[in-house]
Amino acid sequence: LEEAAFQLQQIFRIDISIALNILGTESMRAGHCRVAFTCFKLAADRGYSKAQFNVGLCYEHGRGTEKDLEKAGFYYCQAASSRHPMAQYRYARYLLQHGPGSPWDRHHKAVALLEQAAGAGITEAQAYLGVFYMRGLQPQEKRGLKYLLQAANSGDAQSRFHVGVCYEQGLGVQRDLAEALRHYRQSAAMGNRQARDRLQA
Fold first, then answer.
1. What Gene Ontology biological process does one annotation of this record name (predicted)?
2. For the whole model, what pTM was predicted?
3. Candidates 1.10.3720.10, 1.25.40.10, 3.40.50.1370, 3.40.50.970; CATH matching 121-200
4. Are 155 and 186 contacting, i.e. CB atoms less than 8 angstroms apart?
């Protein structure tokens, strides 16, 4: 693998970590998960954030290695510290569900990471924050609606449905049934079953 990566490096004149990550991605596409994991791990251990994220995915889903959420969290954390937006989202989810430390510290750090990922345009983080702020112990409905709208405008059908709920129930916005219907129709057109059921109701 090191030799193959070196040859790629010579051809493209790119850093060996990038070459290893490319090899890993191509190996994963070809179904060679163990080879892919090895490539990702070599690049990750050289500090390449995209490979660290990929190693986290491998550990989280058991691709090319044993499933290990603690190791997944470790690699997501490394990539997140280099401002990898999707890793910030994944590590935030890990912190909220499995992370070490006090619940307050985990919660505070996770929200900060989600905010960064959402700001970088990660639709999943926007959708998660939208629901999080709507349903939290101290709901912040306007803030939640802002993130739901961002995710909806990025094409997330479930968030579009939630925006409809906000307009129907007056959560973070003035109640407007016509606007609720518009969002439900858009969500239903994207295949959301809840929106279709709501329209029928």
1. extrinsic apoptotic signaling pathway via death domain receptors
2. 0.84
3. 1.25.40.10
4. no
